[in-house]
């Protein structure tokens, strides 16, 4: 063997795991704060090829609204409803976007890599609250 | 760098094994448990971990580049090359670094590699999509990498135990 290898876990492995978990928490927290700062209204931002092409305010919806987006030879059907969004149909090969299911809450997103289409939920999930409380 | 016939043959066999493992794991319905794009067990990482310890970083890197390039050719998708190379190289560099730390076992090295692989793939998705949406997956992918990394670490340890009594690795 080129170098010796330990085959049973050591306490230092737990340190590696802790660092990875910490990184996950920091990334999750940072991304969540970043998307919350986008505004007070929960909005689904649909990006095609990196450009935000559609914005749907989810708080204002009463029923379900379905829109289709085509890019890179694929078509993705997205259903927007009050507080949630899901990809109902896609002709992409791996169907990861469909399997993601419905997502709700700021910071969540659905990505369809083959179609290069993403849906990001930004803003606060709470609507109709006061803007500022004084005194 | 000069490779002996034995080393070259071993590299070719391990590349074929890595390709077969990455193909086979496509049939494991892991997305039913964790519905995230690109979620995989990373079974090919067993080959990388094994090659890193048994053959050294240079040959492990050669196997990785051959595996990623051939994988993209077989998939007929140049975009797949960006994902596998960024993921694979991130994992490789991290594991070379971690394997030099003698206090760590194969589990820690493998978990670090799995986490780095996911970071590399999210970076590839950021480049490919052109926006920050894939970052939302990173916390979950990093958490999942603890389990997938521990699993591939365990499988690699079984491999080393099984081959420990052979003279296969003696150069």
Describe this structure in words.
The complex is a heterodimer of chains A (135) and B (171). Chain A has a domain at 36-122: N-utilization substance G protein NusG, insert domain (mini-chromosome maintenance (MCM) complex, domain 2). Chain A has two helices and eight strands, in the order αβββββαβββ. Helix content of chain A is 22%, strand content 35%. The model of chain A is unreliable at 126-131 (pLDDT under 50). Chain A has helices spanning 11-36, 96-99, and strands at residues 43-48, 51-57, 65-71, 74-81, 84-90, 103-104, 109-112, 117-122. Chain A is an alpha+beta fold and 135 residues long. In chain A, the strands form two sheets. In chain A, strands 2-1-8-7 form a four-stranded antiparallel sheet, with no helix packed on it. Chain B has 171 residues and is mainly α. Chain B has a single domain, classed as Arp2/3 complex 21 kDa subunit ARPC3 (Orthogonal Bundle). Chain B has six helices and no strands. In chain B, helix 1 packs across helix 3 and helix 2 (44-54) crosses helix 4. The model of chain B has no long low-confidence stretch (mean pLDDT 88). The interface between A and B is large, with 46 and 46 residues.
CATH fold naming of chain B? Arp2/3 complex 21 kDa subunit ARPC3
Q: Secondary-structure element sequence of chain B?
A: HHHHHH
Number of strands of chain A: 8
CATH architecture title of chain B:
Orthogonal Bundle
The secondary-structure element order of chain A is HEEEEEHEEE
Oligomer: heterodimer
